[in-house]
Every structure is written in structure tokens, then in C-alpha cells.
Amino acid sequence: MSAASCLLTEDQFLCSICLDVFTDPVSTPCGHNFCKTCITQHWNINVPNQCPNCKEVFYTRPELRVNTFISEVAAQFRQSAQPKFIISSLEHGSKPAEVPCDVCTGTKLKALKSCLVCLASYCETHLEPHLTMSGLKRHQLIDPVENLEGRMCTKHDKLLELFCKKDLMCVCMLCTISDHVLHDVVHLKEEYEEKKAELGKTEAEIQQMIQKRQLKIQEIKHSVELSEEDADREIAEGVQVFTALKESVERNQAELIDTIKEMQRKTEKQAEGFIKELEQEISELKKRSTEVEQLSQSEDHFHFLQSFAFLNTALPTKDWTKVKVHPPIKGTVLDLVERELSKP
């Protein structure tokens, strides 16, 4: 086994999510491997049931089982390759997903430990004083983490390693005897496991909601199929109705044209009668205008006064202000169509 592991490279034993050697490795249906915790958390937080590497989406969450063979090989590789990891970090510096050393200048090497007292992370070289100097030996070292200041209590400068259930916040040990005394306080890991279980229930509820919506999609598709059948039937009936209507319109088209032309002839005849009457009145008015003009030039007082009474009398003319020609053509087509449609 050791001979075989020597033929494999470091990248083949690294989880693409945490960039560390596999822990409880599992395989997705698409053939990619991840730490079981990493892929589970990834699906809980990011796109559910999607491979982070090839982006393939699985309709249901795959059942993840630890690949014992890969797990054993990874464990042996971790033991045999640990010195090589340290050398690699010294040669190439820290990777983007790793915690860099806060003391290194230029190329930042991978940190091996973080100090809760100094609030700094150290590579193998800069960690040496904490392992050899008596004053620094008493400092609490933990696995390297980013944002150390954010993990420390701003009031007591202690690690936030507990969780207050009442105030829903991370607290330190000293907080439990001051601001959070008598509160229900548990370790972060315990709260993490509890919330993780709740998240699992949430995931199950989401999956149930997805299934319900998938069923609704099928129901909608079936409704569309039924609607399509109804639409075809309505179209056929509509074609039949409008075909009959078209035939009826064609039968009455000539009659409609004759009716409109006859109405137009009557209108023109009426208009001719009005014009003849108006021209007759105009002739009478012109004659009266000539007589009035002649009388106005007369200097015979007797004749003027005798004729004035007659000429000053209004001629018997017609009141044309309300006389108009309104051909009853507008709306004829609509009336004819309504009559046709009302026929049994």
C-alpha cells in the first residue's frame, strides 16, 4: 500500500472544498470525491445536490457512504506525506485557502498554529519561540484559523468557545459568570450539532416542498393538455360559425349595396328640392333688393312713403337654419348584420 501511495500526488488526496487530505471520503454519482462533512455542509449552504467540481445536479440528494479504500489510503498518505507538506509550504508559500503566517514578509507561508494570546498565526519557523521559550509556552495554541480577533471576546479577551442559548450568541468562559450568568450555555460543538440536525430537518422540508412543486408541475402540464383539447374543439366550432356568417354576408352583399345606393338617390333628390327652393327665394330677394335700392334714391316724398310700407315688409321666406340633409346611410351595415344574426 505504501508503495502505491508513493506513486500518487498530494492533489489526489486533497478535498477540493477544504483543500486538506480527505477525512471520511465519499464519492458523488459523477465520480468526484470529497470529505463527507465538507460536501454535506456545501449542499446545506450552497446549491443543493450540485457537484462543486463539474456542476452536475442530482434531482435527489445522493446517499453518501464513506469509501473505506480511499479513507485508508488517505490516512496512510497523511502519515507518510506530513513532512512533505511542511517542506512544500516552506518552498511554495501558503495556498489561497490556507491560513497564512502573520509574521512572514513577502511570500506568506502556511501557518501551523494560531496563538489565542498573541492573536496571530505562525508558520513552522515563527512558531518555534512558542515551543521553546518558557514565557511563550504558556500561550494557548490552536489549529490555524483566520480572523482571530473576531473569535475573541471583546470584553474579556478570551476565546469564544461557548454559545448562549438565551441571547443566541457566542460567549467566553468569563461571560458565563458575568453578563450571561444563569443562562443556558453550551459548547459550540454541541450547539453546532443541534443546529446541524435542525438544518437536516429544514433540508427534508425543502425536499418535500420540491416534490410538491414537481407534482404541481405535472398537474399544470396535464391541465395544459386538456386545455389544448378544449381549444381545438372551440376552434372547430368557431370556424363553423364564421363560415355560416360569411355565407350570409355574401348573400346579402348585393342587397346591401342596392339599399345604400337607393338611400343615396333619395338623399340627392331631397337635396335638389332644397336647392331649387333656395334659388327661388334668392331670386325673390334679389328682386326686392333692386326695388329697395331704387326707392332709396327717390326724392318724391309721397311716392317714398307710399312704397316704403310694402317694401319694408319681409318676404315670405323659409327658415333654413334647421334644414339639413342627413342621409340615413351611417349604421346601415351594422343594422343589416344585426338583423341577419337575429334570424333563427
Automatic annotation (TrEMBL):
Alphabetized GO MF terms: zinc ion binding
Matches recorded under SMART domains: RING (SM00184)
All copies of domain B box-type, residue ranges: 148-188
InterPro entries linked to this entry: E3_ubiq-ligase_TRIM/RNF, TRIM8/14/16/25/29/45/65_CC, Znf-RING_euk, Znf_B-box, Znf_RING, Znf_RING/FYVE/PHD, Znf_RING_CS
Coiled coil: 185-212, 246-295
Protein keywords: Coiled coil, Metal-binding, Zinc, Zinc-finger
Name assigned to this protein: RING-type domain-containing protein
Lineage: Eukaryota, Metazoa, Chordata, Craniata, Vertebrata
